[in-house]
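Weekly structure sync, notes
Attendees: PL (lead), two postdocs, one rotation student
Agenda item 3: pending single-chain targets
PL asked that the sequence for the first pending target be pasted directly into the notes so everyone works from the same version. It is reproduced below exactly as submitted, 259 residues in total.
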Amino acid sequence: MFKYKYTLLLIFISLLSVSCSSDNAEDDVTPGIDKTANLQGLGDSASQLLSDAEFTSMNIEIVYVNGFAPSQAALANFKKFLEERTFKPDGIKINLRAVSSSGKAPFTIEEIVDIEEETRTAYNAGDEIAVYIYIADGKSEKDEENKLTLGSAFRNTSMVLYGATIDDFASRPNAPVKSDIESAVLNHEFGHLFGLVDIGTEPQSDHKDDDNEGHCNVEDCLMRASIEFGSGILDEIEGGRIPELGPECIRDLQAAGGR
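Predicted structure, written out during the meeting:
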């Protein structure tokens, strides 16, 4: 069973906010390669992703539907974020591969799980930990008129970005550029893979958002469930500044073996 699935949400009201929710789905292990280490609960591999005690390198497999490739700027920002927070002396590599549309949009999390089973090829091997990221050509079935899901972390090494939703939001007047939105979603969801907040990585101080499980209550932190895209955060993103982890979240990651 999945522990939780956290999603990055943008709510279009008098301000824009970001939050995450939870879902459950069954895990299926197919014969052949041993996939069990990559089919665990969200946050279960936090210390393995952060430290070099067991894994000295990271292999990130990004599978995207044709037409929804992530921007090079977003990938560069994402890799920089990972290098700043992890100890991987043998490096972090990002491999991209295009696939055809599944035709299943809008997606349930169970359908994303099925797609991962069909398209994932990278699993933990030796001293290398593997992460799977799927960029979908549609939206989440949970989307509402004023609430859009941008991404979800749903296993210890698995996450999804809803590419069609990101495209739609990036095309709105006064919205941040697409590469910055992609960067924010990638970093936020990977923060959940790192076990933030209190979903596998123990908090070193009281900064949990009591109303939004898995999130931070520190102003301007990347892991907040609610980010105001007004004269503050919106201006920073438009200027090329991606929301960053707050000091409390960084201390949590350092205590768990990260930087």
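Discussion points:
- The first strand starts at residue 6 and ends at 12.
- Confidence is low (pLDDT under 50) at residues 11-30, 228-233.
Action: rotation student to compare against the earlier draft before next sync.
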